[in-house]
Amino acid sequence: MIQLPLSKLSKVGTTIFSQMTQLANENQAINLSQGFPDFPADPQLLNLVDHYIKKGFNQYAPMGGMMPLKEEIAKKIENSHQAVYHPDTEITITSGGTQAIFTAIATLVKDGDEVIIFEPAYDCYEPTTELFGGTVKRFKMTAPDYSIDWNEVKKLVSDKTKLIILNNPNNPAGKILNEKDLQELVSIVKGTSIFILSDEVYENIVFDGKQHLSVCKYPELKERSFLVASFGKLFHVTGWKIGYCAAPKNLTEEFRKVHQFNVFSVNTPIQLAFADYMKNEENYLHLSQFFQQKRDLMRSGLSGTSFELLDCEGTYFQAVKYDKISDKKDIDFAHELTVNHKVATVPFSYFYEDRLNENVIRLCFAKEDETLEKALENLRKL
Ligand SMILES: Cc1ncc(COP(=O)(O)O)c(C=O)c1O
């Protein structure tokens, strides 16, 4: 038998999202664990895809992406953040946010580099960094408010720091960065050669009239940032796995050197369909309102129970503390909820490398109201 080489990612197993979804399926539980909508995409978008497939747009797209889509993205960014990216040389269509993140990290990180991340952290930042020989330095944001102590972040910076990875709005904490946070970041990176990877896949899901502050609004950040977005989150089509990376020309040139040997290019007819669909801004500007109604349904359904609702400023995830209900670790509590109460959630400890347990679980509210009502009925019995 051929001996396998040592694993490059020995700590990594199946993601918690897949584990909880499998447990949900085995137990016929309502799945509020994985972050995907259970409602259909807009039929107009589906018809556009159908149209372009039937019209014969079924061969390779150009490596950087279809021009009409890149133009619409440039317009969207300019209208939302007053920042200019050249569609041809500064925007690259990727196979979801995940591939944009992977490619940006692969573009930058070499052996011995340090990468700063903020926990609770989305799961792909750390393994991807390690795959390319980088070391992860962590700042821990903790319950109940998940705020950032920038003096502590400064202490993590060294002459080896290559990259800071942000996730704003944050999955799983539902936290958004404010003006002070962004200014603190500017003061940390100004005059250094530190790059930024800003994962903003939930940028259009921000609540209570608050503003999403993109790194591209700040010239000192924009010039060093890879800005990542996802159409899966924007148009309720997570299975299509299309996103993009916006970055200044010199960064995009390097990014595309990796991208072309990674996926080369992305699904042609869907890019064309997105380009047409994006022409109507309402198709994405209504998202905050749409999801705020679902967030409020979930929050009002849980008020008066022993679950403690943490703030949810953005994303489609609600974090809840359950220590008045159980003293079990979050992984055991999430297991019990799925098996005995038929609601699958995600334990927060999985978003911390040291599995910090603060008795918090994450509930996804990107679901039909009916699905949410059923889950709430079960949760209210606890
Ligand atoms: C914070 C964050 N970044 C990136 C992604 C990946 O996006 P995509 O599905 O487009 O690859 C997700 C998906 O859940 C996410 O929550």
What's a concise summary of this model?
The chain is built from 16 helices and 13 strands. It is an alpha/beta fold and 382 residues long. The strands form three sheets. A seven-stranded mixed sheet has the order 2-8-7-6-5-3-4, sandwiched between helices. Strands 9-10-13-12 form a four-stranded antiparallel sheet. Strands 1-11 form a two-stranded parallel ribbon.
Fold and architecture overview:
The longest helix has 16 residues, at 287-302. Helix 6 links the parallel strand 3 and strand 4 (135-140). The chain is α/β, with parallel strands linked by helices and 382 residues long. The model has no long low-confidence stretch (mean pLDDT 97). It contains 16 helices and 13 strands. The chain has a seven-stranded mixed beta sheet, with helices on both faces. Strands 9-10-13-12 form a four-stranded antiparallel beta sheet. A two-stranded parallel sheet has the order 1-11. Helix 14 packs parallel to helix 16.
